[in-house]
């Protein structure tokens, strides 16, 4: 280990001879503690190291302080075997002794591997004629030509506001009118989410008060670093702070103005009709202050420079400019800059110095730093500028006009001015090629430089690659510049042009050669990927020659690969390594990253709209043509009906936003399905299946909730039940007339829908709903509120109630969630049976389903804590299903889940999503189904619809994310069964488990193989029961009810019935219209040659 340390920290013996030179601090030593030392012990005190022999030795020279060189360095900050967090600075109160003795004594200690002198850096600047007002340097480096590479006529702005150049300097008057617009805003610290971290308050720019929360939001170790950082504070020993503003008054040598001048060269706002232009045009500057406000010398500073460099890298700066330095070399600093490059990918640029010398100048002479010399307007080396084989590039630095205090501008000279010009040019190049590596950006910088050695013959090879030419760096003509413009994938044995998990893909790539680059020939490409789900079958291809500005595609020689069947859909990163010939003998080698989308999207989806979709989607064959449609409403006032390929079949426009999920049923008795929904224009609309209005009803307020459909008076016609936000409950007939005593005023606003069922089994249906006044109401069909209601909770009720018989007593329990963080179960008397506390608001409407078909119902719901819950009701308590709850993310679950047997295993999956947009399918045991979660890239607070929309035997899931409607094509055969597969349990939106299909003939869910008649449910019943008939083909069907003597008492159906699964009801009435007496009856179903008889029991 000692050997490797000395390799890294070379030139120690050389440094010893320079102890008394001003480039080193005269009272400080830097040490590196051996890895065997616990540095946590060292950090406990600033007056001792905690290592006895070291402290005893140091105290012989008087009092001292020991501090960590880079307090924010972590285990990541490592170069070879050197950990930067193990360097410590020892500063003595007195300076009247020989540091060499101390250094040698410390190196003799076994606990210290290295001791070295600490460089004393100074700012490199030379202020000049304050009245020089031209910017000759921008013309000299071809900045205007470089800016013209952006399509400014079409609104493109040169540069890139995501490219950040850190100015580690004396601070910056960042509110200068020509600097503030290009000031870096650390949006990771944007606590109030308003998109900025500074605000103009009373005419003065201030740090955004809404973001000052004393929290390190971005986790980089610096609290509230909204625009940069002040490493040094006011005086030596002061704490750093988060405002890198330069002091209000410059020192005697203008040192404190230095950083403001440097910042203007990099990133003064350009094309703003004010002041100067900058090379970076629109790139951002990050001020990092490393000089004390009250420094006794305006041109020197202590160790803050290194800390400022590390902060810049941790804060995400792409480029770090250092317009300062000295002749003092430090192995610790060398390791720091290597760390910045290797572990953070930042490019460090530094001034070469103003001594007109070829002696090494640091930090610019370190191998990981770009050293910049200065030239004048004649392309000659500035008289003051350093030079040498260690210089990397030269740039204008004489008479450079830039920003200073008090909204002014001055021309200064120095390598301090040349360095930011190169830093800004790097930012501009990186803006043009944002996907390139730091090494490639440097290569382009040097490659584009102009050779000016003919004008500088005395400095042959000592001015680096030449004088900066940013235009040539960006638009080199010797090599092609190829990029992936687009791609297409053809799945093997699949014609939908969509690559799904489990498929083999043939990949064609369109390569584009950018304008102003050389023609490309002999193009060979090889793809690779690190993704586990991809097996490459043919990774190589030959492309045709591509001229500048043109494109080419591997039409015949396609890439080929296999996708694993269990892959979760996502963008797969591919790397294409390209070799090609450019102009002359130039050879081009490039690795291009691109992404291939593996998805479960149904062909034609997702479909995007201008405004958010605000209703849960529904899959249904609305017009009876045996092709299912997808129906939903939007904030653009439209109700949309799409076909299975995402094409619009028809649109209905309301007067305002449609946020009411439609209900579907034959409300007017014409044997076709009608659509019923409300709008924020106060109208309830009843449309036929072509989009024509049957009835429109004007209420007294906005209709946001989904209506429910139910035959409340058992007359064979469906009534429409809906609340309005403005505290009323409506019930109307299909012709628009009011039903009974409705509408009825309520105490609280309503966002949720109603549930309909005979909760007390008295023969009459009841209406259940919750309000924002924390109450659950029950209304009978005559508008009365039964005893025990309303039931009051401790918070708003935003969920739709669900109804189910959980106790087995034949009566229906009411299940709902509240903002008081509880799920409630109450009985028909308004008595609390059980509650389940989740610790956060419940705004996800519960569903009730027997997921595993074991005869026991599950209750499934989400909460605002991001958890999805599944519980059983047993012995008066709600018990978690094994493996539940499931954390779906950190954002609320507000949409109601649905259930469906996606993989034909007889057990339903639960489909749900948190508001952040990931769509989950959860198995009964709590595990996530294969190929899930699917990322919909948008927020979702709505429910879903699951059905086989295209008739291919697998299910599709309709889901919404903001303005986008997606249709997820699950690639497994689905299972038959009765599930809660859409919002509110079915098309009538009643919140009832036994109302999940349309009346007979209205909806074909599947085509069964055999004839069958299900048991009726519920059984016993009062007054209504339901049963399913499965027909493998169309048949003439007779459905009759007989008493036990064989007497016919009612005929339910007597005509042709199409093949499929159909739901039928008997309302308990005789053919005369009277209610049948209690007793056992026979249900007889004849379909062609098939006949089935079931016993059913009617109770009173």
Description:
This protein is mainly β and 1100 residues long. The strands form 18 sheets. Strands 12-13-9-15-17-18-19 form a seven-stranded parallel beta sheet, with helices on both faces. Strands 22, 23, 25, 27 and 28 form a five-stranded antiparallel beta sheet that branches. Strand 45 (766-770) and strand 46 (775-780) form a beta hairpin. Helix 11 crosses helix 12. The longest helix is centred in the middle third of the chain and has 18 residues, at 415-432. It is elongated and about 120 Å long. The N and C termini lie far apart (92 Å). The model is unreliable at 1-22, 125-132 and 994-1006 (pLDDT under 50).
Major β-sheet profile:
7 strands, parallel
What is the 3D form?
A: elongated
| Gap from first CA to last CA | 92 Å
Number of strands: 70
State the assembly state of the protein chains: single chain
Secondary-structure-derived class? mainly beta
Mean pLDDT: 88
Query: Which strand order do you get reading across the main beta sheet?
Result: 12-13-9-15-17-18-19
Pick out the low-confidence regions: 1-22, 125-132, 994-1006
Tally of helical runs:
13
Estimate the strand proportion. Answer: 25-35%
Helix content: 10-25%
What does the radius of gyration come to? 38 Å
Q: Any descriptors?
A:
seven-stranded parallel sheet, five-stranded antiparallel sheet, mainly beta, 70 strands, disordered N terminus, 1100 residues
